[in-house]
Write a structure and sequence with these properties.
Largest sheet: none
Shape: rod-shaped
Strand content: under 5%
Structural class: mainly alpha
Distance between the termini: 92 Å
Number of helices: 1
């Protein structure tokens, strides 16, 4: 049994389209992870800075023997 050339061409086009779709999905997922990471770091950045500043202030108040 022989498969017509048009069917093979159609399968090839579909395969390329699906690969492009998968690539697009991975790109969108990567972009979402990046946006969430930037948001979390932005929200926690000030809290971490304040925590480190308070720790530094307390450590500078301790007298060294």
């Amino acid at each position: 049994m022989q498969i017509p050339r048009s069917a093979l061409a159609s399968l090839a086009r579909r395969a390329r389209r699906e690969e492009g779709q998968v690539l697009l999905e991975y790109a969108l997922l990567l972009a979402l992870v990046a946006v969430v990471s930037i948001g979390v770091l932005g929200a926690l950045g000030a809290d971490i800075k304040n925590l480190l500043f308070q720790t530094s202030s307390r450590m500078s108040q301790v007298s060294n023997p």
